[in-house]
Amino acid sequence: xxxxxxxxxxxxxxxxxxxxxxxxxxxxxxxxxxxxxxxxxxxxxxxxxxxxxxxxxxxxxxxxxxxxx
Length: 69
What we know:
- This protein has two helices and no strands.
- With 69 residues, the protein is mostly helical.
- Helix 1 (2-25) packs antiparallel against helix 2.
């Protein structure tokens, strides 16, 4: 499931970059700020996904160690 989340987060970040670039081109501070905010949200979501993946990996490793004994 993390693969889908990775794609969604990357798409959200890309959309934020586009929004920021359009804001820069149009000299629209509100649109620039909105684009930056979208990028930060995507980065935050991605960090959460990475933590979940790491925790899952640790749990799987512990289970494998327990099963091997």
